[in-house]
Amino acid sequence: MESGATDQATTNNRAAGATQSGDALSIGILLWPSFPLMSFAGLVESLRHAGDHGDNSSPRYARWDVIGSALATARSSCGVPVSATADYVSPRNFDHLFVIGGLLRDLDTAPKPHSAYITAAYRAGVPVCGVCTGSFVLAGLGLLDGKPVCIHPYHREDFEAAYPGHRFVPNRDFHRAGGVSTALGGVSILPLMRQLITHHLGPDRAAKVEHQMTLPSSDGPVYTATQTDHSSIDDPRIQRALVILDAQSGQPPEIATLARMLGLSERHFLRLFRMHVGCPPKDYIIDTKLRAAVWMLRNTRASITSIAYSTGFSSGANLADLCRRKLASTPGDIRRRAQVGRG
């Protein structure tokens, strides 16, 4: 369940706007006692990777707060505690409010202000999402009346007993209706976050999340680099350097680090590499990444931004620029020609 694609220009405008205006995606989180840590981690890790470029983890485009009283701590079902990072601030500060429920036996033990805060958020027009048994919490507040509900099969019988008359949504990770969402929990939080990030920040940010979190893809076969023939190079140190660069083209080592691995000074390594290969290491790395990207464009249905991140480019725009400069073509043209060739 994903929203429609947005082009690169729109994505860049969204990201730039979030940075310049301070209008980053903002998420509030309410944790119930004995909440599932995996659901919480999936939520915040998605936001962390969407929130900045590279692995800097600064909240430029996305931020979150765990809501609760000062010094309050919620203990997860596995025993790991998480502290509140913000008091019960105005729910209008957030674009979405997530309610992560806990073990059924503990649903009545949450801090009393939690439920009032959810109601206030809903009345203020803030979309509310119940994750795992968070759906029980929303149902208890009447927010799911007349709405289909996405409930994990393990909890369905308990939910029916407590809140009869609801229609269940089968075979889905989450469901959104009338400003309220319900999600199964566990890894099912990830497709919801992908859709939410795509909607607010564009597919470029969502593709970064998929790549950084190594989420499985159904877009087609994964590119596996083939070993390039380096038999014509008679210096074993440069042969080894090429093997390393081929294997790590997505995240190549620093040139100085690679030179030390080979027992060479950086200057000597650069001279030997150019002499044997005919170009500097930087150009070789770019060509290797570009070969992988072209293969994926021809053989998978993955988006251009997903392919860019998968092959080590900084963005879809970066990949498109290199395709134009080195191949006199665009990623879209490369894909279309491959499709025509297959008939």
TrEMBL record:
SMART domains: HTH_ARAC (SM00342). Residues 239-337 form the HTH araC/xylS-type domain. Keywords: Transcription, Transcription regulation. CDD domains: GATase1_AraC_ArgR_like. InterPro entries: Class_I_gatase-like, DJ-1/PfpI, Homeodomain-like_sf, HTH_AraC, INH-QAR. Pfam families: DJ-1_PfpI, HTH_18. One of its GO terms (molecular function) is sequence-specific DNA binding. This is HTH-type transcriptional regulator CdhR.
